[in-house]
Specification:
The protein is built from six helices and 16 strands. The protein is of the alpha+beta class and 224 residues long.
Length: 224
Amino acid sequence: MRLGQTTDTLDAEGRVLETRTYIPPDRAQVLKALEGFTGAIMQQPPAYSALKVAGVPSYKLARQGKAEPLKPRAVTISSIELQAFDDPFLSLAVRCSKGVYIRTLCADLGEVLQAGAHLTKLVRTRSGRFTIDHAVTLDRLAALVADNTLDQALVSMDEALADMPSIALNELEAGRILHGNSVPWLGEASITGSPMLRIHDSSGKLLALGKQVRGDIRPELVFS
C-alpha cells in the first residue's frame, strides 16, 4: 500500500482524489495503528464492489456517480504482519475471514495515520487449506492441455473438500443416498452441527454431500 494518496476505488487503478502532505509515521506508530484493525471489527465495503444495492452492483452505481454508502459489516482479521515499511510504501500480510476488503483496510489505516492511503498490490497467498504453492499459471495450464495431461493439475473433489467431516455407508445405505433418499444415522456425534459432510461408500468413493437432519443423513448433492 501507499501512504499519502487516496483514490476513488481505494486501489491503484482508481482516480486519484487527493495527494496529501503528511508527517511520515515511524514503524512503532504503524504497528500501534494496526492493532486497532485486528480481531472482530466493523468494516464498510468500498463503493466499487460487487455488493448489490437494490439489485444493482454497487460498482455500476459508482461509475455513474450514484454510489450510496454501504452498510458496515462484521468481519474478522486474525492477524496483520508488517512485512516491510519504506515510506510511503508498506507491505502487510493479513490473515482474515471472508468478506474482508483489503482495499478498505489500507484506506482506513491511512486515515488513522493521518496520511491517506490506497492499495497498490494484492496477492492472495491462501484460501482455506490451499496455498499459493498449489496454484497453476495459465501458461502452465495451456501447456498441460496441449500435452493432454491436464489431470496433473486437477484436485479431486474429495481432496478439495477434505476439511468437511465424512462418513462411510454400507451398500444398502449408499444405494438409498444415490437415489436421493435419507438414511438413519447413529454414528459419530461429532458431525452434528456441521453444515455439510462428505458421504462415501464402503470402498471410500465419494457419493454425495449431505447434512445430518434429526438423526438422518440427508443428501443435498448426489454424484452419479
